[in-house]
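[Help] Beginner question about ligand-bound structures

Sorry if this is basic. My supervisor gave me a protein sequence and a SMILES string for fe (ii) ion and asked me to "get the holo structure". I don't really know what that means in practice or what format the answer should be in. Inputs are pasted below exactly as I got them.
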Amino acid sequence: MTAVENRTTDRDFDGPEHQADLAELYRDFDAAGMTPLWTCRGDLQPFHPQPRAVPHLWRWSTLYPLAARSGELVPVGRGGERRAISLGNPGLPGDPYTTPTLWAAIQYLNPHEDAPEHRHSQTAFRFVLEGEGVWTVVDDDPVAMRRGDLLLTPGWHFHGHQNLSDSPMAWLDGLDIPLVAQTDQGFFEFGREQVTAPGAPERSNSERLWGGPGLTPVAALGARPQSPLMAYRWVQTDAALTAQLELADEGVAGTLVEPGHAAVRFTNPTTGGDALTTMRTEMHRLADGTHTARTRTTASSVWQVFDGGGTVTMDGQARTLEHGDVFAVPAWTEFSLQAAGRLDLFTFSDAPVFEKLSLLRTEVSA
Ligand SMILES: [Fe+2]
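Answer (accepted):
No worries, everyone starts somewhere. Holo just means with the ligand present. The predicted complex, written as structure tokens, is below.
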């Protein structure tokens, strides 16, 4: 018999005296800033993840017109910095967060408008659904933005945007804002008021130096935590996905994630790991009629339909997918895709964070 049991043997646990003593103990705990684990273990240590974020889909046909209206009504300038409108998860009221770690937004720039330079500890990227004519200037290197391109702005790099065209342009911004905010890691600094993309070059300096496949400049050997290549061009992404499916059709093994499902990850050429430290970025292509396996993972993710249509099923609820639609997949949500015609999707997730912490778990069902 333990000491604790010795001391409590004579108590009447159902009696009023015990209940009064217990209530007093809890009041004293509260006053002392103490919380007994036995009253909240299920919340603190659930048997599996219990995300507050919910599966949710935003229609591009809703997002774009609203962003365009903000283009008419809201100027871009110092202070607000960007005409970016985030997609807040309905399960996370009060926070403009798409998942507990990820922030997805639509950013809109009018013709001949620019967004001033700044830098922050948050890591960012742009994914271009449609349009061209904007240059993102990253540490003085102008990077052209065109349809299907992924453009990186790793943490603490100065960046601004300039629209040199006669058309407005909108794109998807992805950042780790919630992760950085909730862990008190945020730093921010203003740069120049005016951003310029001198010469508006077709290829940025980073692409000229790092854009050769498998070719590392000997003057810059060594691993870097994030990719020094700031642009991943659609023409290359498209060719890689096409090749995976063609090779599979030709009977070459090991080219696809699963039958009919091609995918590429955007990687850091100095390590082969993720291009960004806190977010995984990938492009997926499903051949017509492909059903993906039902999966769930402790990473949360955001997806955007780049081309084609189909269906996404999250925790048993099916939603149709159309051009530009964005959807959030919270941690441990059972998730599958079905293509109606060819379906191309861009996705980003917080997987690298949990992989580094040995917390990432994934289950795949048949
Ligand atoms: Fe920024």
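A couple of things worth pointing out: The two ends are 50 Å apart (CA to CA). The chain has a mean pLDDT of 95. Feel free to follow up in the thread.
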